[in-house]
Specification:
five-stranded mixed β-sheet; single chain; 153 residues
Length: 153
Amino acid sequence: MKLDAIWNSRFLYFSSMLQKAGFFFLLLIALSSCSTVVEDNEDPVLTAFEINSKSFQPGETITVTVSGRDNENLGQVRLRIEEAFDKSSFGFWRVVEIQDISGQSISRTLNFTVPDSSLAGYYSVAVQLSDLRGNASIDSVQYIAIRQEGIMP
């Protein structure tokens, strides 16, 4: 009887120790698998932004060339064409183009045909790059004119 009591007490002691060791082992694995998150506070940089002309008529193609880079991974290129001074946009042509991209650098050409219905006027063309962490470049803006025959912009 005494032998059984000694055996049970030792078994319980070792069982308790194994449970504690197992808990600490699992805790050690969980903590070692955690990695620190490195913050990305660096905005993408637009290195080139070119438009094939400064003046267009309906039916002509606006070609926009964009180049840029980021320290980690780019996420999107965003382009807006809208009337430059009258923000009501009533009757004015407007384009919003958002393209998903990846990699640390981009060189992209975007083409837009000026529709017959676009009103004559001055338009802004704005380009922005963003990365996968939500950082974005400053909008880079250039101005173009859309001419309608017999109407000055």
